[in-house]
Design brief:
The complex is a heterodimer of chains A (about 325) and B (about 500). In chain A, helix 2 crosses helix 9 and helix 2 packs antiparallel against helix 10. Chain A has two domains: about 180 residues, D-Maltodextrin-Binding Protein, domain 2 (3-Layer(aba) Sandwich), CATH 3.40.190; about 110 residues, Periplasmic binding protein-like II (D-Maltodextrin-Binding Protein, domain 2), CATH 3.40.190. In chain A, strands 2-1-3-10-4-11 form a six-stranded mixed β-sheet, with helices on both faces. Chain A has a five-stranded mixed β-sheet with strand order 7-6-8-5-9, with helices on both faces. Chain A contains eleven helices and eleven strands. Chain B is mostly helical and about 500 residues long. Chain B has one domain. Chain B has a two-stranded antiparallel sheet with strand order 1-2. Chain B is globular and about 55 Å long. The chains are: A alpha/beta (about 325), B mainly alpha (about 500). Chains A and B meet through helix 2, strand 2, helix 3, strand 7 and helix 7 of A and strand 1, helix 15 and helix 20 of B.
Chain lengths: ~325, ~500
């Protein structure tokens, strides 16, 4: 018995020693800055188990929602840069910075990888009279500033309709509905007229509860071949939401390299690809270097957008 | 529809589905019973274990946790006076006094059967009325939601004990707590005192755990000292009661059961209110409609029936909204929705017609879980009751640790634990000064929603009169005024009669 205990103690010591030597030795927290069941959550939740498999440690998703997703951003920024806190992000990090909603900038983080890209679809409530973009445009010109759009203010769902506004020379009225789920509730009930959504809402469109007006891609999407692109309607807007992983600034390079390789392997898993397809999202993988360049480019673009739309606050 | 349901039940009774459903319900009951471990936490803990199962197995397990958790809270609520989950808060009001009056078995079985029948009534609605009920909820715009929440909050006036002023003040403190942090629209910081983590606002759960569990434990410690019973095990009173008599007690009040189940159901169908408000609203209704409102808080069966039937009917109602529209109402339903997505289910209006087997499988799991819940509590009641015989000096630290773990695991941050500590001390102080705590909790639950819906209403249309001229909204606001007026009148009548106010069971 004594020898048995000694063996266990030795084994425990050994494992703790080896664990001390190599990252990661304890569970990794992945901050999703919105509620569970939202679009971002739905993409990172199937990603986490695949990522876990390749990084070799438990990955726990922490939903830290609130204040247009900036509460989670702040928590991620203030976390120690040790690779045990990761942060799931999309373009809102740029837009909320430039519209003055948050002080957190993308430069407060180290990029790890980009994993997905979701095209935006301009979506109307079935209680509106518009069957297509032409009818919407005519009505919008007649009643400037009266058509209501549900949006997370300062975030992507605000930028996308604002771009449409500008390109088509019309004016909407914005109502704060944070996150896709409350927006869907409001638009199904006809309490808002328009919103930014995506292919995940296809089921509701087929049931006649929502209307897809136009998709913001270069070409029509095979899943919804009847929905025109904004471009072919003469509205020059292409917009998608790209999701990736960041780590707090100052995370060691070897840790980042380990995370990057785990991310690359996880992004290639067929189970994850399958989950993305259900979310109406395309896989889009970029490694650290490419993602870093992409972020820089995207940041400039969002600053320009915020300025053009009259939302720039810094 | 009936063939589908029968096929669904036959399906779920196979061992491969029954086993996860049973385990889920058992874990749910335990999680629901343990103070500081909420249904949300239990469901979050269980979710990863369902990843490897097929969709119906996984969802059966999750449904079991939800049903078991909603009922499990009554065990500690009745026997310890601490709600195991927020949805059992109102059960403590009468369940605990009844248990202390020497009838713990009666209190618990009343709760179990009320949960069972309330849950079954909820199930009837879940299966039969999914589409029309959800259609009503969707008609609610921001004006209606604003008025509904104001109505809920004003009903708190009826819940307050001796002093209406203290009750209203307590509710106001709750509302002020929700104002702290960034505003919900443009993120401007309010009342943050320059402390970083306050910018995100104060989460509801640590406030609840702190204010309720901590204040309860502190008062327990005081009593322990006063009586000097440290470490002395109490005698286990018998839990055996005549089941027929208890069921008879419930069915002799058919209107109460139907009405409170209906309230629970309605609150469940409407997004963003949740079980924690359902049981209190139902309790308040039962008290107002009772011929003996003064008996509430002293161990009356009506109070237990109201709270427990409402919180289980609420599960049925929330499932309606998640399954039909994919709109989560609170943390628990958000995780349930996440579970559906993980298991590859696109919930929405097309779900039932496109995947009837799965949908009716979930309905069947919901019904069977209620039977399992009764069996599980019947057999685990004794071990659970031993919780009351464990010396307080052992139980209190365990409960405190569970509270802290529960708060910490909410999103794995220490700041939540500090929030818990602050509100624990504050809750204790409020109890000492005779403030009821229920209005504070309801204020915290509803404050954010009241604010955001008011902002949305005004952003949609700048005309403030719409709050009064939209019929449902106007009706709800009128009901709020009537509710406060009625409470005032009741207080006035009580004072005239000189009825003693019950201070001890106030919160």
């Amino acid at each position: 018995m004594k020898r048995f205990l000694a063996a266990i103690a030795a084994a425990a010591l050994l494992t703790s020693l080896t664990a001390f030597a190599a990252y990661p030795e304890r569970p990794i927290k992945m901050i999703v800055p919105w509620a569970a069941g939202g679009d971002t959550d739905n993409i990172f939740r199937p990603f986490a188990p695949q990522f876990q498999k390749h990084v070799g440690q438990t990955v726990v998703i922490a939903n830290v929602g609130g204040a247009s997703g900036t509460k989670g951003a702040k928590e991620a920024k203030e976390s120690p840069p040790d690779g045990y806190t990761l942060y799931s992000v999309h373009e809102y990090i740029h837009s909320t910075y430039y519209t003055g909603v948050a002080d957190v900038n993308y430069t407060d983080f180290e990029p790890i990888c980009l994993i997905s890209s979701t095209p935006s679809v301009l979506t109307a409530s079935p209680k509106t009279p518009w069957k297509d973009w032409k009818a919407l445009l005519e009505d919008a010109k007649k009643r400037p500033g009266q058509i209501t759009v549900g949006a997370t203010l300062g975030s992507t769902s605000h930028f996308f309709p604002a771009l449409v506004e500008k390109a088509a020379g019309i004016k909407f009225k914005y109502v704060s509905y944070e996150g896709l789920a409350p927006r869907m509730n409001a638009i199904l009930g006809g309490h808002i007229d328009l919103t930014d959504s995506n292919l995940t809402q296809k089921g509701k469109v087929e049931a006649g509860q929502l209307r897809f007006i136009a998709i913001a891609t270069e070409k029509r999407n095979a899943e919804i071949p009847n929905v025109p692109t904004l471009k072919e309607l003469g509205v020059n807007v292409v917009y998608d939401v790209n999701r990736g992983l960041l780590a707090p600034k100052g995370t060691p390079a070897d840790v980042l390299a380990k995370l990057e390789s785990a991310c690359a392997a996880a992004a290639k898993e067929p189970a994850f690809a399958e989950a993305l397809k259900k979310q109406g999202t395309a896989a889009r993988y970029l490694g650290r270097k490419e993602y870093s360049q992409w972020l820089k480019k995207n940041d400039d673009l969002n600053k320009t957008l915020a300025k053009d739309l009259g939302l720039l606050k810094r | 529809m009936y063939e589908l349901l029968l096929a669904g039940i036959a399906n779920i009774l196979q061992l491969k589905y029954l086993l996860p459903l049973f385990v889920g319900t058992l874990v749910g009951v335990i999680g629901g019973a343990l103070p500081g471990v909420t249904i949300a936490l239990t469901i979050i803990v269980v979710l990863p274990f369902t990843f490897g199962l097929d969709p119906l197995q996984g969802l059966a397990a999750m449904t079991g946790v939800y049903v078991g958790g909603s009922a499990g809270g009554l065990i500690t609520a009745c026997l310890l006076g601490i709600p195991g989950t927020p949805s059992a808060i109102a059960t403590t009001f009468d369940g605990f006094p009844m248990a202390r009056n020497g009838e713990p078995g009666r209190a618990m079985w009343l709760g179990i059967w009320a949960s069972f029948f309330g849950g079954l009534l909820g199930g009837v609605f879940l299966i039969g009325a999914t589409a029309p009920l959800a259609a009503i909820a969707l008609e609610f715009g921001p004006w209606e939601f604003f008025s509904l929440f104001v109505f809920a909050l004003s009903m708190v006036a009826g819940l307050t004990g001796a002093s209406l002023t203290k009750g209203l003040l307590s509710g106001a403190i709750g509302l002020v707590i929700t104002v702290m942090g960034n505003d919900p629209v443009m993120g401007a910081a309010r009342l943050t005192l320059g402390i970083g983590f306050l910018e995100g606002g104060i989460p509801f759960l640590p406030v609840l755990i702190g204010v309720f569990a901590f204040a309860q434990i502190m008062t327990d410690i005081e009593k322990m000292r006063a009586i000097g019973t440290v470490g002395i095990a109490e005698r286990i009173p018998t839990l055996v009661v005549s089941q027929l008599r208890v069921i008879g007690e419930i069915f002799s009040r058919p209107f109460l059961l139907l009405w409170t189940s209906f309230i629970g159901l309605l609150v469940g169908v409407l997004p963003a209110i949740g079980g924690s408000a359902a049981n209190m609203m139902a309790y308040d209704q039962a008290k107002k409609l009772s011929r003996h409102p003064e008996r509430f808080g002293t161990g009356t069966p009506e109070g237990i029936i109201a709270s427990e039937s409402a919180n289980n009917a609420n599960v049925g109602g929330s499932l309606v909204t998640i399954m039909a529209f994919g709109i989560p109402g609170d943390i628990v339903t958000a995780v349930m929705l996440g579970a559906m997505t993980i298991h590859g289910i696109q919930s929405g209006p097309l779900f039932i017609s496109q995947q009837p087997k799965l949908a009716y499988g979930i309905f069947a799991a919901y019904l069977v879980a209620h039977v399992l819940m009764v069996i599980i509590i019947a057999f685990s009641a004794r071990p659970m009751l031993r919780l009351t015989t464990v010396p307080k000096s052992m139980l209190i630290p365990i409960v405190l640790v569970l509270c802290v773990i529960g708060a910490y695991s909410l999103n794995n941050t220490m700041s939540i634990v500090y929030v818990l500590l602050v509100f624990g001390v504050m809750g204790y102080a409020l109890v000492k000064f005779g403030f009821p705590l229920a209005p504070l909790i309801l204020g915290v639950v509803l404050g954010d929603q009241i604010e955001i819906n008011m902002i949305r209403a005004i952003m949609t249309d700048s005309d403030p009169w719409l709050f009064f001229t939209r019929p449902i909204s106007g009706g709800l606001l009128a009901a709020s005024v009537v509710s406060v007026a009625f409470a005032l009148w009741q207080h006035h009548r009580q004072r005239k009669r000189g009825a003693p106010a019950d201070g001890d069971t106030d919160f």
